[in-house]
Amino acid sequence: MENIAPLPERSYAEINENRRRLLHDAYFSYQEYIHCDPDKFNWYTSSGRVNIFDLFYLGENNYIDLIGGSTGTHRAPDFFMLTAKGADLMEIPGELDKRFPMDR
Asked: How confident is the model over 7-45, as pLDDT tens digits?
């Protein structure tokens, strides 16, 4: 089995920027599921692991719905889609900035 890439240290702004990007992608693809490209969502590169980590975070907080994969394995989700809670975060003025501020 290949080694799992380390999760790089990220600033609060970097974490929020990536989570906002994933939510933005899901919002503008709604009601379609977004395929988790294995080149961008994998455990064996630092950037891929960051994306998986952030997807699971957003999924566990019910901002997106994850299809396939499991938190108990080193498998990335196959697809993700925005939930109603995620849509509210994107559509209610100020909510996205309150939850994922970019100025820290």
From this structure: 889 999 999 999 999 999 999 998 889 999 988 998 888
Cross-strand pairs, 65 = 81
How many C-beta atoms lie closer than 10 Å to residue 37's C-beta? Answer: 11
User: Which phi and psi angles does 20 have, rounded to 5°?
Assistant: -65, -40
8 Å CB contact between 59 and 53: no
Provide the whole-model pTM.
0.86
Rounded to 10°, the helix 12-29/46-60 angle is 70
- Residue 54, classed as helix, strand or coil, is helix
64-67: strand order across its sheet: 34-35, 79-82, 64-67
**82 confidence band (pLDDT: 50, 70, 90):** very high
Q: Catalogue all structural domains in the chain, each as residue range(s) with its CATH number.
A: 12-93 (1.10.10)
26 vs 60, 83, 98, CA distance in Å? 15, 9, 19
